[in-house]
Amino acid sequence: MTASPSRRFAIGSVLMIAGLLCFGGLCYLAGARVNTSPSIALGLYWTCRKPAENGDYVMFCPPRSELFDTARERRYIGAGFCSGGYGYIMKRVLAAQNDAVTVTQDGVRVNGKLLPFSAVLEADQGGRPLPRYRSDGYTLNEHQVLLMTDVHPFSFDSRYFGPIDRSQIKSVISPVFTW
Predict the structure, then answer these.
(1) Are residues 54 and 96 in the same domain?
(2) Beta carbons within 10 angstroms of residue 172's beta carbon
């Protein structure tokens, strides 16, 4: 007895979906990551094992805090497997050891140079007040990095949560295909 065409189609569809899921899992295990946040260019990135340097894109787990709890509740960041139930966040390292950082209303300055897309916003796109990292200026030590957007003015980044400890960085990521 042979299967009907609709049954063969259903079986073929299930096998194709299972194959795609297996392929996606293998790509993830090999280091592929997909960015869907506008904080860095959308697209496919590849993890690599090297220390994060100025200019690198990184994937990090935010430290557990009330600020990041609020960020998750407001969907600035997703839920995931990091401590506190946070998802990984992808940003660009725009300042590192010995860089002087100043956060003012007009934006973030690194060694006196104003970063693009860094104006500090009072409220998010829903009209809710945004936190602001309060500091008269600081110099990053060897354990700290400033993680910012380089493409989007509404990114939730270091102008709101301050510098991140390097231990929070899970991987440097390199763009493979972005749009």
Answers:
(1) yes
(2) 19
Same domain, 145 and 156: yes
Q: Average pLDDT of 13-34?
A: 91
What does each C-alpha distance from 18 to 15, 24, 25 come to in angstroms?
5, 10, 11
Of the listed ranges 18-27, 47-56, 146-155, 165-174, the least confidently predicted one is 18-27
What is the C-alpha separation between 72 and 3, in angstroms, rounded? 48
Is the pTM higher than 0.85? The answer reads yes
Rounded Cα distance between 117 and 128, Å, is: 19
Q: Which candidate, 99, 111, 175, places its Cα nearest to that of 144?
A: 99
Arithmetic mean of pLDDT, 29-43: 94
Note down the domain range covering 26. 1-30
Place of tokens 């990041």: 68
What single-letter amino acid sits at 12? G
Whole-angstrom distance, CA of residue 158 vs CA of residue 117: 12
